[in-house]
Amino acid sequence: MPRIPPHPERRPVLVTGASSGIGAAVAVGLAEAGYPVALGARRTAICEELAAKIRAGGGEAVALPLDVTSDESVSFFVSGAEQALGEIEVVVTCAGEVTPENSYQTSTPSFEVQLQLNLVGTQRFVSAVVPAMAARGRGDIVFVTSDVVRLPRPRMGAYVAAKNGLEGLARAMQMELEGTGVRASILRPGPTLSGMGSTWPVEVLQPVLDDWTRFGLARHDRFLKPRDVAAAVLAVVSMPRGAHITLLEIEPEAPLREGER
Ligand SMILES: NC(=O)c1ccc[n+]([C@@H]2O[C@H](COP(=O)([O-])OP(=O)(O)OC[C@H]3O[C@@H](n4cnc5c(N)ncnc54)[C@H](OP(=O)(O)O)[C@@H]3O)[C@@H](O)[C@H]2O)c1
């Protein structure tokens, strides 16, 4: 049986949704850990600012425009990143969005838009990179999903459907890629303070939070920070070869109970 070689020293990373929240923190966190990073999102100016900060701190980073709903944009991003950083070793898919509405009141076009971004866009992106990884016999794909797969939340049915689809896709891909050296991993964060939901007016946000309480989904008031999720991503991709974290769920730790400090 051939021995599995260790990771190469240089491991360029593609991060989708790198202009905000979890994606931005992943790009910064991996760059700090020595990974060259390509930051992609539609708001290229924000990605460029982040990349400049990373470079100023001694890291290696490039920012390129990316819209995961467009074939042309994905292929421009992947080839530009490869030219700038070399062969891609790691992909972290963070691009995503949620629209707060009851699924039975969601128009079919709105439902489709959410599936196109969160599910189809991720498949489009990953399939632009995985064949070359499999040919090289190594690589890491991290699918950022959500704990809504384990605990579905109301008022976001399209998002719940898309994230379930994404985990199904990742599970199928894990089997397809078995023995190729490419590790596909599911990274499932719980509630995280990010751009997501930050612009919802209170009359939209409050019923969402009230429903979390009503359905027992708000066990406490703590949220993860994007950098916590970035640390989990680093744990997944830095796992030595020969081991494969197939699923990692990260939740905010509960506040300590009175009298237990
Ligand atoms: N926040 C949470 O509580 C939470 C929990 C579990 C999982 N997640 C997941 O974590 C991931 C990151 O979300 P976040 O919480 O960090 O939210 P966020 O701060 O709103 O970031 C979302 C990112 O997605 C990008 N994006 C949106 N549409 C895109 C497109 N068509 N092409 C490329 N990029 C696009 C946005 O960039 P542009 O607008 O510049 O394109 C932005 O960088 C998502 O997949 C989300 O489902 C979040």
UniProtKB/TrEMBL annotation:
<dbReference type="InterPro" id="IPR036291">
    <property type="entry name" value="NAD(P)-bd_dom_sf"/>
</dbReference>
<dbReference type="InterPro" id="IPR020904">
    <property type="entry name" value="Sc_DH/Rdtase_CS"/>
</dbReference>
<dbReference type="InterPro" id="IPR002347">
    <property type="entry name" value="SDR_fam"/>
</dbReference>
<protein>
    <submittedName>
        <fullName>SDR family oxidoreductase</fullName>
    </submittedName>
</protein>
<comment type="similarity">
    <text>Belongs to the short-chain dehydrogenases/reductases (SDR) family.</text>
</comment>
<keyword id="KW-0560">Oxidoreductase</keyword>
<dbReference type="Pfam" id="PF00106">
    <property type="entry name" value="adh_short"/>
</dbReference>
